[in-house]
Amino acid sequence: MIDANGRGVLRRKPVDDIDDPPQGAGLKRVMGTWQLTALSLGGLVGAGVFSLSGVVANELAGPGVLLSFLIAVLASAAAALCYAEFTSMIPKAGSAYTYAYAVLGELAGWLIGWDLLLEYTAIVAVVAIGVSGYLSYLVGQLGLDLPAWMLGAPGTGDGHVVDLFAMVLCLLLAWLLNRGAKSSARVETALVVMKIVLVLVVVVAGAFHINAGNYTPFLPYGLGGAITGAATAFFAVYGYDAMSAAAEESADARRAMPRAIIYSLGIATVIYVLVCVVLLGMQHYSEIDVRSPFSGALAAVGLPGLALIVAIGAVFGIVTSMFANMLAVTRVWFAMSRDGLLPAWFAKTHEVRKVPHRVTWVVGVVSALIAGLLPIREAAELTNIGILVAFIVVAVSVVVLRRQRPELERGFRCAWVPVVPGIGVVFSLWLISQLDWVTWARFVGWMAVGLLVYAFYGYRRSALADKSVAGMR
């Protein structure tokens, strides 16, 4: 099935002409550097600020949560630099799927793409469930008594039948994405700016209520606790992965994408450092409310009004993470369909808005069903491992392409290759080793289904299949 020329499952998309899609098959390039940065920040600054910082501090690291996030950011930066190099060479939709297809071959690209379809869709559902919880709380604060059947998935409470808020949110985001890349990016940018302003207001207000005594002991669970906390924190600092899937909608992708990745990770790092310092200064780690860390801490120091504002802002802030991940999965699906590995029907773009509207509605409906009918823990078990595998593939691909095609023009070059990619690979492998068997079982099952789909459909329908056959004659 394969040979040294890259036929069969090893056939590769040519890097040299990968920038030129078939006539009418491309997306509209409308996003600038700061819109891309906002899209990345939408994934980077969300649940990590409003939820994970408190969870890691309370259960794993204490004030050492600051060290946890710094370790996570350093590990994430290794992968980010690899993504930045690829986006400067291959400014196409699909992120890790497209990079793997161009460097490691069709089968590797297929497996990563198939994996990301599930991972990103599940992340959208998980975040929707989390936002739904905030919305239910806020509605309760307004004195409204909602029927129990609409407040959660079966098994999550008495009388719960479906999480209606979560389902509606998924469908609303699908509608927003179908309004066009420019319009939806404006909304995302506005929400991200609002979120960052809110976080800065909280940081400034909380700084006046810092008690230095709350920082001791700094490592109550030892250095091991802070390192373990880094594994949890890592899942809050990879938003640039989702943003890279939108490369084909960047006005100047070769320059804008690397800049957006670096800018967003830098801004996110500063925000996480400030958040950790202020949160742990306001309230002792053992007293932090893991469900709403900032709201609880602000209420504890006598700022209940600001606590309510934070709860409202958290809803809009976390929605930006949903947006980034839904955009990512639709662009990966679009790229796979355009390449012939999935039915071409999904690659059809809107005649005016030039967005993959069919795929977007499918993702919206599927994520709504997951969010509405599965408890958050079961939905979360569908995530995590795929993103880490994608990081490994991208890091390895950077090293391989440096050796295979050193002459290729690179608008951005990852520093210290192969050391930096190696750090990303080692950290990702370590995190994968920490995942439970249920996550592994679901991952293996999904991959097995993917191999069957590729064997009976994608392999023969691939856009490169005819070229491969021609090359054998």
Q: Can you walk through the features of this model?
A:
This protein starts with 32 loop residues before the first helix and ends with a helix. With 473 residues, it is an all-alpha fold. The radius of gyration is 22 Å and the shape is globular. The protein has helices spanning 33-44, 47-61, 65-89, 96-103, 106-141, 164-177, 181-207, 222-234, 239-244, 253-282, 293-300, 304-338, 357-373, 376-380, 385-404, 419-433, 437-461, 465-472.
Rg measurement, Å: 22 Å
Number of strand elements: 0
Query: What's the end-to-end separation, in Å?
Result: 15 Å
CATH architecture: Up-down Bundle
CATH superfamily assignment? Amino acid/polyamine transporter I
Domains (count): 1
What global shape is seen? globular
Share of β-strand residues: under 5%
Q: Look at the structure and give the CATH class.
A: Mainly Alpha
Q: Which class best fits the helix and strand makeup? A: mainly alpha
- Written as H for each helix and E for each strand, in order along the chain, the element string is HHHHHHHHHHHHHHHHHH
Report the major sheet.
Answer: none
Determine the number of helices (DSSP H or I, runs of at least 4 residues): 18
Topology:
Layout: H1 33-44, H2 47-61, H3 65-89, H4 96-103, H5 106-141, H6 164-177, H7 181-207, H8 222-234, H9 239-244, H10 253-282, H11 293-300, H12 304-338, H13 357-373, H14 376-380, H15 385-404, H16 419-433, H17 437-461, H18 465-472
Helix pairs in contact: 1-7, 1-10, 1-12, 2-8, 2-10, 3-8, 3-10, 3-15, 3-16, 4-5, 4-15, 5-6, 5-12, 5-13, 5-15, 5-17, 6-12, 6-13, 7-10, 7-12, 11-12, 12-13, 15-16
